[in-house]
């Protein structure tokens, strides 16, 4: 996989947000913060997990200290580290520990997206994995208060996961790829 420039990583992440996350309504809460420019997209230069951990800590502190009306959520895109999904998946424990160490548990949480995302018990090519596949490894820093508000507004939030799997299954891998195909 070719390593992107910051501009390329941001552009492909925005395309994924617009076409998949918002376009397919995989996250019914994403559109409102995206159109209000409250999504911060940061590209990390980290090449080692320890560097990414330091940057994650800085971004968590920054998000916690920023008015939600300015930045509601952050996508920390890290295309130069944790390319292997198993390494990325193990890093999630480190991310959770950083949230606790910063005493931000209950305030912020970290979700994960990866180009090779694979749910436990699924095959690597299972289309359901595409619900969490992003162009580059990405840590999503989310405010708990935003999740609470979104769940109040969407009373059947627990059904989102199943609906997303139905959506990508209907679309299929070819349909998913077609979302991002450039028109010539």
UniProtKB/TrEMBL annotation:
It comes from Aquitalea magnusonii. It comes from the Bacteria. Pfam families: DUF1415. InterPro entries: DUF1415. This is Peptidase.
